[in-house]
Amino acid sequence: MITRLTFAWRLGLIVMLTLIVAWIGSTAIFYIASVREDGESRPLPLPRQIAAIVQLLEQANGSGERALVIRAVSSPKFSAKLVKDLPLLKTPTARPFELRARLVELALSDIGGRPFSLTFDANGGHGASPPRFSYITATDLELRIKLNTGETLVIQGYHRPTTNVYGMPIGFIAGLGGALTGLIALIMMHRQTRPLAQLAARVDQIDGSGVSTLVPETRSAAPEILALIAAFNRLQARLGQLLRARMAMLGGISHDVRTFATRLRLRVDHIPEGVDRERAIADIGDMIRLLDDALLASRAGAGELVEELVEFGQVVRAEVDDRSAEHAAVHLQTLTKSDDAVVLGDRLALRRVVANLIDNALQYGRAAHVQVAASDNSVQLTVDDEGPGIPAEQREAMLEPFVRLETSRNRRTGGAGLGLAVVRSLVEAHGGAIDIGDAPTGGARFTVSLPLFHA
Predict the structure, then answer these.
(1) From edge to edge, which strands make up the β-sheet containing 378-384?
(2) Are 88 and 117 a contacting pair, CB within 8 Å?
(3) pLDDT tens, residue by residue, 381-430
């Protein structure tokens, strides 16, 4: 039956049960407090009242007046009577009896003192040991006072203590009960919302690789949650199909475009030497490079990069040496442990990261100052340039595809705006991070951090 209830009904039922329990507890506490305020917790008259009753009975003339006094002081809370030749009993040594007996003794001492005893009544057993006080069981008390007339005044009443067996007050018990009730409601609520937390965790695990992270269905979950989980699983399957289709399409386009670019490059060789030929060759090279960047970024996003052990310091040194051979203004500085830094990843992708950052610094910053440093858990690549730098408010946007500081789309004043986006995609695919800051030379600083491989 419970499995058919919707999520809203379940939450409503939990809240309703919690309120009912709180209402019953509050009502019980209210009635207990009301009874105590009416005098139920005071089983006997006040000590001064007891002394006054004793005086009235001793000063009364005849049995008629004494009977009138007894009738006046009796109530549903306690009763009084006069008995002839009734002996006193031994007052128990329990603390509640000792305290009450002490108060009665002080009140009777004001009128000259009277022998008395405070015990359980006959039903409780005068000779029995005092039972422990509790909230549920009422304790009947009996007070016997020897009068000067020779009679014994017997007052019987009830005692409901203000503490339980362990001496804890009622407020503490009520608070403890409320806390336990709230804890039970919290556990029940957690059990109902646990599938939602699992769903949120699976959503965070989506990485665009096309691998489905299905959420297991829970039979005890509400119908709405089951429907949401099923819809999410179907969405995961569709996303996987779309990503696989996209990669197949990009692979086909890349192959065809490369074929056309190769043919075009061969035909350019027939163009006479001159500025137009050099520009055509440069445009074809840019087109192939753009295509490679886009395809590599797509592979990274789909989780299809090759994994191998790569000595990152050697990759950086190879890229720097290639540009130094072309007399580019590039400088390399390696720190301790950087030569032995091993990264688990795609060698081609890592080379593209280093190449894009160095080329970006050379093109826009006139020089590239490269530094490699390794720690116990990561290796850092820092590339500084001597350009104007990147404003802080535009640094995050520079890592997005097709975003350039130079807003025109003229390829002769800048690239396509895809280089840094490719770097970010490849770095994050390797579990790293990229950050843009200010270089000591006044230009921009690009810092790439990659996790080291530990056997």
Answers:
(1) 330-334, 368-374, 378-384, 444-451, 433-438
(2) yes
(3) 999 999 888 988 888 888 887 676 655 444 454 555 677 888 888 888 88
CB of 222 closer than 8 Å to CB of 197: no
Residue count of the chain: 455
Report d(CA 362, CA 386) in Å as an integer.
9
Take residue 94 and report the two structure tokens written for it.
């329990």
Determine the Cα–Cα distance for residues 63 and 11; give it in Å rounded to an integer: 70
185: which residues sit within 8 A by CB, 6+ positions away? 14, 15, 17, 18
- For residue 40 the two structure tokens come to 């139920």
pLDDT, tens digit (0-9, with 9 covering 90-100), for 318-375:
999 999 998 899 999 876 566 678 999 888 889 989 999 999 899 888 899 999 998 8
Which residues are within 8 A (CB) of 230 and not within 5 positions of it... i.e. 6 or more apart?
217
**Contact present, 444 and 382 (Cβ < 8 Å):** no
Token duo for residue 226: 């089951």
Percentages (nearest 5) of helix, strand, coil residues in the chain = 50, 15, 35
Residue 327, CA atoms < 13 Å, CB-side half-sphere: 0
Contacts 24+ apart (CB under 8 A), 123-126: 126/89
Rounded Cα distance, 383 and 371, in Å: 7
Q: What is the largest CA-CA distance in the chain?
A: 150
CB atoms within 10 A of CB 305: 20
What values do phi and psi take at 243, rounded to 5?
A: -65, -40
Distance (Å, rounded) from C-alpha 131 to C-alpha 136? 13
- Coil, strand or helix: which one is 282? helix
Question: Is 108 within 8 Å of 116 (Cβ atoms)?
Answer: yes
Which residues are CB-neighbours of 30 under 8 A, at least 6 positions away? none
Taking residue 163's Cβ as centre, other Cβ atoms within 10 Å add up to: 15
In this predicted model, which residue has the larger pLDDT, 133 or 379?
379
pTM, two decimal places: 0.48
DSSP per-residue letters across 61-117 = -HHHHHHHHHHHH--SSEEEEEEET----PPP-SHHHHHHHHHHHHHHHTTT---EE
> Under a CB-based contact definition with an 8 Å cutoff, are residues 44 and 101 in contact?
no
Tokens 């009277």 sit at which residue? Answer: 114
